[in-house]
Structures are given as C-alpha cells and as structure tokens.
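Researcher: Last one for today. Full complex below.
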Amino acid sequence: MTLPAGRSKALGMRFFSDNAAPVHPRVMAALAEVNVLDTAYDGDRWSKSLDARLSALFDTDVAVLWVPTGTAANCLALAALCPPHGGVVCHRDAHIQNDEGGAPEFYTHGAKLFLAEGEGAKLTPATIAAVLDGIVDDVHRVQPHAISITNATEYGRVYTPAEVAAIGALARERGLGLHMDGARFANAVAHLGCHPADVTWRAGVDALSFGFVKNGAMSAEALVFFDPAQRGATLYRRKRAGLLLSKGRYLAAQVLAMLDDDLWLDNARAANAQAQAIAAAAAGRLVHLVEANEVFLRATPDEAATLRAAGFDFYDWAPGEIRLVTAWDSRADEVARLAQAIAAL
Amino acid sequence: MTLPAGRSKALGMRFFSDNAAPVHPRVMAALAEVNVLDTAYDGDRWSKSLDARLSALFDTDVAVLWVPTGTAANCLALAALCPPHGGVVCHRDAHIQNDEGGAPEFYTHGAKLFLAEGEGAKLTPATIAAVLDGIVDDVHRVQPHAISITNATEYGRVYTPAEVAAIGALARERGLGLHMDGARFANAVAHLGCHPADVTWRAGVDALSFGFVKNGAMSAEALVFFDPAQRGATLYRRKRAGLLLSKGRYLAAQVLAMLDDDLWLDNARAANAQAQAIAAAAAGRLVHLVEANEVFLRATPDEAATLRAAGFDFYDWAPGEIRLVTAWDSRADEVARLAQAIAAL
Amino acid sequence: MTLPAGRSKALGMRFFSDNAAPVHPRVMAALAEVNVLDTAYDGDRWSKSLDARLSALFDTDVAVLWVPTGTAANCLALAALCPPHGGVVCHRDAHIQNDEGGAPEFYTHGAKLFLAEGEGAKLTPATIAAVLDGIVDDVHRVQPHAISITNATEYGRVYTPAEVAAIGALARERGLGLHMDGARFANAVAHLGCHPADVTWRAGVDALSFGFVKNGAMSAEALVFFDPAQRGATLYRRKRAGLLLSKGRYLAAQVLAMLDDDLWLDNARAANAQAQAIAAAAAGRLVHLVEANEVFLRATPDEAATLRAAGFDFYDWAPGEIRLVTAWDSRADEVARLAQAIAAL
Amino acid sequence: MTLPAGRSKALGMRFFSDNAAPVHPRVMAALAEVNVLDTAYDGDRWSKSLDARLSALFDTDVAVLWVPTGTAANCLALAALCPPHGGVVCHRDAHIQNDEGGAPEFYTHGAKLFLAEGEGAKLTPATIAAVLDGIVDDVHRVQPHAISITNATEYGRVYTPAEVAAIGALARERGLGLHMDGARFANAVAHLGCHPADVTWRAGVDALSFGFVKNGAMSAEALVFFDPAQRGATLYRRKRAGLLLSKGRYLAAQVLAMLDDDLWLDNARAANAQAQAIAAAAAGRLVHLVEANEVFLRATPDEAATLRAAGFDFYDWAPGEIRLVTAWDSRADEVARLAQAIAAL
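Model: Here's the assembly. Have a good evening.
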C-alpha cells in the first residue's frame, strides 16, 4: 500500500486507550482463514457457530449477534429493552451517556437516560432506587424500563457477581431490563476469576455487550442476549442501522479467535497485570482502585508534563488527574519505565 | 482458529452475489501493514489521508468518511441531503427502498421515499419529474428534498455522464440534492471508461457512496461529499449511529489499497468481463442489457434446476428469471462452463 | 373580539371540504356546559366516561383516547400496531400516505407504508396479498405488521362489513394488525345502516380513528382500541406527542355531544343525503360511486369555471375532475342550485 | 349533553393548577364568533391575522403558529433550534425535562437535554457555562445547540430582562439558540411590568412558547419566532406531528380574544395578586420567592392534612412541601380563607 504523503509523527509509548492497540496475531490469522468465498451477511458457517460457542461459554442458551462497535452493541441492547417513550437508568459517567454521541437516543428513538450516582462509576441498588423513586408513575414523566451498568466501569472498577445480582434483583422487582456494557468485560472477568455466567445471567443480566475490540480484535463485538427471544427484532434493527456487514465471516472469525483457548482472558489478564504494575508504583496517587486495565492518577500539570517529556502519552482526565490505560500488548519494559517515572515524580 | 462443529456444505460455483467474494490479497496485505499501534477512530494517518487521495482521484476537493457498509454510506448521505420531514425520489427497485431494511427511514428520522419508474432501474428526468409534479406544494404533502440514483443500477445498467448530468440539471432546477449509490460504482466507471468526475460531481452529484466491499474489500466503503461542508454534521451522525469504529485505520487501509494502482478499476473490469462472457452465451435470454457485472436471464424453473444440478448457485429473481453476478475473482474456467451450460439449455 | 384588519373575502357556496364546516350548536352547548373547574388532562369526569359510552355504542369493551386531529388518531393507532422497523399496507391514495405530511413515519419512527391498489381507494384481500406476497421474509426487507383501510375512503366509497371482514381475516392469517381510518366513519355507517360493531371489531378491526371534526365537532376525534390493552403505551405516546391537552374535558364534551341522541349519525345522514342530491344530477359524470358525502365529477376546465362563476367553491382533483364535499350543514337550497348548475353544463 | 353516569365528586377549593381552570367568557364568546364556515387549517382570516397582532404586541416582525398545547409549542421550538444529534441546556427541574413525557426527544428525534443548576429553577450564565464547559468538542459528545429557559419558572420565579439578556449574550457568544418556555409568560410580564419585547427578543430570545391555556384560554398556545425564517420548516413539523387542526380558526380566536384589551395581562395580574395574598399569610413558610402565581410552602403532612380537611386541594410537591397555584378566576374569598387557614397552622 502506498503510504500517505508525509510522515506519521513518531509515536511515543502510548497509554491513551486500549482501543488503539493493534490486532492480535491470532485474530489476523483467523481473518486469513475465512478469506474464502462463503455466504454473505451472517449466513456463513462461522457466524452461524457463534450461538453455540457463546452458549457453551456462558453455560446457557444465548443468542448472539456480531456488530462492529461497542456503541452499536450497547444501543441495540437498549433498543431491545426500552421503548422510545421509556428511559434507562445509568451512571452519570456512563459511556452511553457521555461518549456515544447520542447513539442511545438514536437507536431507541429518543428514550431518556436517567443519571444515577455511585463511586467509581458503579451503580448500587440504593443509587438506582433513588432515581427510580423520584419518578412519579404518570404519563407526564418518562418511565424507566431498563438499567444499564458497565463492567468493568469507565473508571476501571469491577462489579462482583453479588453486586450485579443485587442490581438484578432490583431490576426484576421493578420490572426493568438489565443491560451490561462489557466493553471491558474480559478485564472484569479476569479480575474476578469467576465464571462469566456468574456475573451476567445468573446475576440477572438480560443482555451483554461483550467487547473484543479493546482486547485484541479488529472490528467485532458480540451482543449476547440471555433470553434468545430478544434476538428476533434485533436482527431487523441491526440491518436497519446499516450494521449488517456483507462479509460477516470476518467479524465472526474475530470473535471465534478471541474465544479459542481463552485468548480473551489471556489478553485481559495481561492488560490487567500491567495496570497493577503501574498502580503499585503509584499507590499514593490512585483516584480509583485499580481492578481492570485503567489507572487514574492524581498528577499536577507539571507532573503530567514530566511524564510526557519522558515519552509517555495519555489523556488528561480531569483537573489534576490523568488516565493511563494498558492493553493486551502493553510491553512490560515500557510499563516498568512508566512505573519508575511515576515513582520518581 | 477452531472450526465450527460440523462441516461446511460443499460450495458450488457461486454466482449469488459479489458481496460474498473473498477479500483481495492486496487488501489483506494492507490490513497487516497497518497492524501497529496508532491513534483510535479516524485520527490515524491512513484515515487522514483519504481526503487527499480521493480528491486527487476525483480532481476536486472532496470530504470522505469511511463506513463499514453501503447501507450506512447511502443513509448518511440521505440524512445529509434530506430533513426528517422531507422525501427522496428513487427508483421503485432501488436498494434503499427494497434491501436496506428501512435504514433510510431510520437515518433520516422518517423521510419518505418517493418511487419513480424507469427501465433497468434507471431514472430519467421525465420519470423523476412525473413524481415531482404530482406532489402539491403544501404542508399536507411530504416535500421532495433529494434524488437518489444507483450506478450501476440494481439490474446492472449504467448511467452515462450525460444521463446523470440531465438528472443533475433537474435536481438543481428543483432545488434538490443528488445522491449516487455507487455500491458498484467501479463497475460503472469500468464500463464507461470515463473519468470518475464525469459521472459524479461534474454531472451534479452531491454525494457518492463509493463501494469497495463488492469489489474486493472486506468492510470499508467511502462516503464522498463533493461539497466538503456537508461532512461536519455527518461526522456526528456517523458516531451517533455506532459506525465510528475504534480502529479506523483498518478501514482506511482497505480503501487505500483499492485505490493503489487502480485496483478498484482492475477488479471491476475483471468482473465485468466475466459478465460479458456469460451474456454472450445467453443473448436471447437477457432481461437487461449487461453493462456491469450482473446478468439477468429468462430461465424456466426446469432450466434453473438444470444449471443448479451442474453446480452453479444463483438467485431466482422473479418468476422465470434468474440473476447471475460475477465478482473480481470469478474464475474464467467456471464462467466458461456456466456459459456453455446456458447455451446448452 | 376585535376583527382582523381588512375584510374577509366574500365566501361562496363552499363544497371544498367537510373539515371547514362550522361546529354544531349542540357541540357548542356542550363546551359551555363543561366550562367549570375540573381536573386537568383526562382526569375529568367527562373524559373518564368515554370508555363506557363508546363501549356501549360498540357493544364491546373498548379503550378510548381523545385527540385533537384525525392525523393524530391515525398515527397513534399505527404506532400501536407497528414497530419502527415494520411497515403498514395502505392504499396508494390513502390519507396517511398523501395528506398527513409524513406523520405516520414520525409517530412510528420511520415505519414504511406499502402502497396497494384498489378501485375507489378500497383495498381488497387480493390487492393486499399482492403486496404482502412480494415482500420476502428476511431482514433486508421491511416486514409488514399492519394494514390500514379508510372507511369511507378518500373517494367516498364505503367498505361493507363483509368486505372489512375479508380483510380482517387476511390480517389474522398473516399476523397483522388492522386499523381503520374513520375520518368519515359516521358517513360510512350512515350509508351502511349497520351496527357500528359490524364494520369494526366484529370484522377484525383492532383500532379505529373515529372522526367527529368533519361531522360537526370542533377539535375532537376518538381513538378507539378494541383491545383495551393497547391503550397503555398509547397514553404515553399521546403525551409524548404533545397531544395531551390540559383541558381535556372540552374534547370529551364534543365527543359526548356527538354521541348524544345519535347526533353523529344524523349529521352524517344529512351530509350523505346532500351528496346524493348532487349525484342524482350528475349521474353521467360520476368518477366514483357516491356512497358517503363526497362527489367526484368529470368536468372540463370550462365547466369547472362555469360552476365557480355561479358561486360554487370546490377543489380541482385531477385533470378533468372536480371534488364536491357536503357537510352536516350543507343547505338544501344551495345543493339544489348546484345540482341544477351541474345538470345545465 | 347527557351527563356521565354517576356523580362527579364534590370539588373543593382547588389550588392544584392553573391548567384546570375554566375558560374565560370572552374566549368562549370568541369561539362563538368564529363559528361560521371558513377556510380549513390555518387559511382562515383569524389565523392569518396572528402574525400582525403579535408583531404589534412585540414591536417587531414575528412569525406565529398556533398549537393546542404548551408541550407542542416547546418541542416545535426545540426542533427548530436543535438538530437530532445535538443537545439543549435546560434547568434540571424544567418542564421539558420532567413533565412532557419525553416530547422534546420525540420532536427533536433524540436530542439530549443537558441539565443545569440554578436557584428557583432559574438558570444563570454561570450555571449554563458550567455545563457547556464540561462538554468536550468532539464527535463522541453530544454538542449543545440551544438553551431553554422558563419564564416564569416551574417555581414561579421570574427572569428579569437583564437576566435574560445575560443568558442571551452567552447564547450568542457560544452560537446557541435561545428558547423561552412561556407557559406562564403572562404572569412573568405582569410581574415585571415591562414591555414583552424587553424580556424576549430584545434580550436575545429566538423562540417563545407564549402560553394562554393556563391563563384563561381553552386549547391554544402561540409559538412565536422572532426570526420569521424559522417558521418555514416548522409548518411542516407541525403538520407532521398531527397538530394542524382542521378548524384552526377556533384556536386563533382564543389567542385573539386573549390579546384583545390585554386580557392576557389582566388575567395574569389577577392570578398573581391572589398568589401574593397567600404569600403574605405564609411569609415564614415560603420555599421560593412568590413572583408569579405559584406558592410553594413548607408544611408538615399534618399541616397539609389540616388544609385539605378545610376543603383546599393542592399538590404535595416534595417531602414537607406543598404547591398552591392560583388562576385567572381564583376567588378572593376562597383565597382569603386559605390565607387564614395557613396563618392558623
């Protein structure tokens, strides 16, 4: 391929985000493996195998759709759980509220997000109930139809099975659906060491956005319905959103490769471990407990500048706060240098 | 990658659709080439180079967005050209009307498609005007805001620059935008032998869905705005639709590889040539003039069964009519056998 | 009230439309009667009595919502019967297709209208099935979820109970909802002389837009659900559409006054009778059989001009065709003069 | 009219809401006055006179549309000022956020409401800027396009011309539209004693929902655009929302009657005066300064019960807080008894 004119700027040691990491070699190999003529859309044998593979993983019958982005997975799930005139409770720092450009409103045709509180971007039954109890049950108020939680959260915190189950119980009690944004589900499960079922359907989750792109895939996420009946209309919504790629086998292959020999868990463990290494060097500066692959640190502008001058790239998150994200391919040597640099601040 | 349980059924010689063909090796190579850490979304150097590359190709300043499907490209274009309360004139057999699951209505928030006539799925100024003239200008009627044409059409017919220009003139006269669905734009240009500008912006086209997936790419199409000002809001709409992939460089790379050394034209010429070979053997059966890579034939159910028994796969299109589509990788030997089989019916 | 500056132009004898007629004195009296403090929205005793009154009329339990326009009634019904990704079969000349400014698409969030044929704007099981059978059952095609018919039709034709029942049977067989646009339901029932149940729920109709505005009311229509369970979400949709008027008792009162002593039928009979008087004078010119209160005549431009010169106002409908509409208050003397004028052409 | 079966429950002295009050006799008279045949929709002479009448009132050229509800007025205004992918800053207690059942999201096709703080439900440039400054300018965040303020606010507080002008200046500086929800605009102007222009267009307001229903009308509000160019698309949106009533003259007449001899101001002054009478008796209990026609009082459940036992009806607003609303027809004797009852608590 002809390179673009000009030179790419030299890239530093990047801790911006796991969603910029390269694609794992086994995923690339899987793309090559399916590079043969087959049925279009999701009629190919690889796409057709996803239900069985993920049903085996979750130890229950699930219905699975591949989609190219986490935003698409989240919003198709919300559209399945909430009508246009309803609303969804989520954390005020949730990705669906702040980072999806209004996609939840687009996909649900204008459902409202109700913003709830919680430390580390984790909702609790109490903070959810506080929102729900403030919503009078009449036609003048948008009524709640679902709850959406993120595991691991936007601040790298992890819900335990018990914590999810408590929210699941509230959801059932109030007649609400429960969605889990699992853009970093792998990191959460790797941290918990639990069975993936324990933190999802056994805890009351109805739909999971199972993320792979931040964890080594190229362009495939899996939307998992624990009630297979919810797939029907979602197939139409996916097509209607322009998300039914013609050559779906290249998405299915990514998911399958990530599942093979638990690559999804290995990659997440690797990323989590590097985050722990950073956290260990920055104990006094941690804004949030480090449980997955994100590290939020207190750092003055001068300190941030010092780290950048040393070749580390990352986001300023809030005044006096920076975010460092590790990925499946974070290099131990770079992380060690980063840890030293932080310790030396 | 672990193969799905069971065996894939033996695949025959497939003339179902070009959208099921494998990915061209040079596109696969490009994916490997960009498989390095870079900026997420469309901030990478490859994505950033698309404007320049396509401006050079079209000999004018264009604004380009990659998207993963042709449906997405079409519908983002329509959303840019038509407000929710407006309408778009298209052929009654247009892909946006019949094959996108209501995506135009989703993206435009309910704009109406006005269905016009025309031989071979080609609109003409007269058939468009017939629709427009039937729409009284008052608030009780949805008002037209744009025209959408497909080149090559759903029946493999090609608009010439003069034909597009005549429609472009009508669009200007009536104050309407003009969109071209170019899912098979390459096949059209390969047939015409013209400069791609001649059949687009020089003929009055405002937005082009420039298709690559049917022509050897994996999952990348280019939405090309000939008025770069239309990109602004579209960037927000693309994100809002869940179409802003995290790792955009893998889409940009596909487009760039297709443009390198005119691979897009070479692939289209190859597909068109195979279609001609079929057409030559089926002259008396042709439903539509064969100009691109689709061949529509009259064939009785028995004749269709005979062809299938000989190992050829294809769609029944209408009673007594079958559709055969060639692709960039159609094998001359298989096409020759198909041609013989047709001639022998 | 201070009159607007300037003079209203002298009004001729108007046969434009029944929707411009004045309000019946008994409706005006009802407005005065409810002009006391009561509960807002639909919590007043008059609004609350609508279910019982219309259940009695229809001889079955119905759920009723008042709305201020027929468009609102139609589109809330469609939204109850069809999801955003679905479609509704209607006649190509249906009001919902041509005269509601895209309201069906707005209320349904972009459902598609499938246009079917039929003489006098009447659908038949055959014309509906012709559309349905052309829709392949896959995600690329919008799938039908409902049928909408208009009784009396846009051309003043009336479906009999048997005709509706045949369509109702098809709807059940195909799993589709059935909506009746009854903007001129009163005129249809007056013509048929049947029980209103016979041409609605007993014939398979799920939802009826029961029109009063064209028949002597000011601003109230009744949306009638024959399955009361469909009211729930519709209450939210009505509010969300800005249609829940604060002082609902003034709408309920109109409906109640129209039902009292069968004013709705008396008014419709009056209008129908005047249309018959015109039709009798124009037998050779009738474009459609006159069954309700609309008369479509063949008339040259010169003939139309002659009628206008004589003081009659009406719409040109199509080249060589005019439309004359009678209303509850059409004056027999004016109609007689019109009949004479037509006969004299 | 036949009364509904059963008896209406005896109504107490109602201070629930001004939106349940009866219609002013002069408005009723105006309805009778227009009860003649005229052109349908908004083609009648009364509807056509609204622009001139309100242009005179506001001392500038305005474009006016009647609508039947304040929700409709608000949401058509928001749809004119904000695209589907944008957002609107409003107070977290704003009617558009809490009491319109998601209508803003319906009309704008999913725009997001950004919730800002402010005492008495009044926004300030500082609280608005705090929200705006937290919105990073990239495609992942919904971008603000407009600000909506309510005057008088949901707590009966009034923005002065200077306060609105400060917000208007911020709106201009940030390129945002400015909408005023004037459901109780009359009460605000009556309180301020200013020219209506001073608190609207001269202060930077682009669109005003000018409320009449809470102030003595039956079913008509005026949506006023200070930039007449914004009417064009709104006419289509109004029809598309099912809000274009067939007999618009009955809405226009209400607005005209309310403007005649400043009935709108007289009614508002009357309501405000009664609120002051209540406030004077409850000085130590006031939650909000009383400036319009709403009084929010601290009252224990026992105290509230005492008032109810004395025959007064009102809403519990928050724990330990009740809301009393006066209307154009509040009776001085009932208000005096209420004041005494409050003083005696």
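Chain D has 14 helices and twelve strands. Chain D touches chain C through 69 residues (CB under 8 Å).
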